[in-house]
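> agent: user asked for a holo structure of the chain below bound to zinc ion. Plan: (1) validate sequence alphabet, (2) canonicalize SMILES, (3) run complex prediction with ligand conditioning, (4) return tokens. Step 1... ok. Step 2... ok. Step 3 dispatched.
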Amino acid sequence: MTELSRIDPAPARGRCVVCGGSRRHAVFTEFGVDVLECDDCGHVYSSWPGGQDYDGYFGTGPIDAEAAERFWNGQHARMYDDFIRRFLVGRRGRLLDVGCGLGYFVKRAAAVPGWEAFGYEISPQAVAFARERLGLDTVFCGTVETSHFTPGSFDVITMWDVIEHIPDPDPLLAYLRSLLTADGVLCMHTPNAVVQVPKARLTRRLRGMRPDLHYLEARDHINIYKVSTLRRVLQRNGFRRVRFIHLSPIDGMAGYKGRIASLLKRAWFVAAVVLFHASLGRINVDNLFVAANP
Ligand SMILES: [Zn+2]
């Protein structure tokens, strides 16, 4: 028995946050925590209660600057640059990155001619890193809902791998909608349940349940969206035009294993894009990247 599996299971969350339904079944169990699928709308969510102000990502220990640089500036470079080419180059305005972590994306966006870039992040250590190491005085600490930004003052708002951590997405999405200009865009990157659940089951079948492997991160990823469920929560919070696009994936780490991982990811990505277009957008097996306009 592993250490994790001895932790008491969390009290199950009562209702699906997407449709309010209470009928569900477990699709995976991760060290005592059930991951559930709503029988009414298909939303996948963890039975772990989580917290609305998620601050667990950076922990409390010191931040390893070299590792941070490799991961956020190195492995994310292609994805961030792909985004910048599509959404920022040739335009001008103000961008807000919510849950900006160490600030690497804010720094890249701020370097694009014509753009002012701001960040909000709940972890004080991450904010200290962004301000002191990256020299960003436009990164602020706290929950964005308490930011006092002027309504309608941002052209682009980004959330990279944030929304899956938030138990109730509605107050956050409604607030971000209020910060956007009339023709602004909210862009979010988040795992796709359609891929993550089978992948977790495959990992369990091939390698068993091991604390050093990743499955669904059931204590951190409280909501795992699909195209249909993410579209639904965006639309009810005032985003009328919701479209899914594909961004170059995060690269693997250096070394032989990292290169193999990169190749596999890229192959999957190319196949996912082909399948998406061949199915006229009906089948999406990529990570979810959504662009939503008011
Ligand atoms: Zn539901």
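> agent: step 4 complete. Summary for user: The helical segments are 65-75, 77-87, 104-110, 124-132, 169-179, 193-207, 227-236, 256-278. Residues 56-190+236-256+286-293 form a domain with the Rossmann fold fold (CATH 3.40.50.150).
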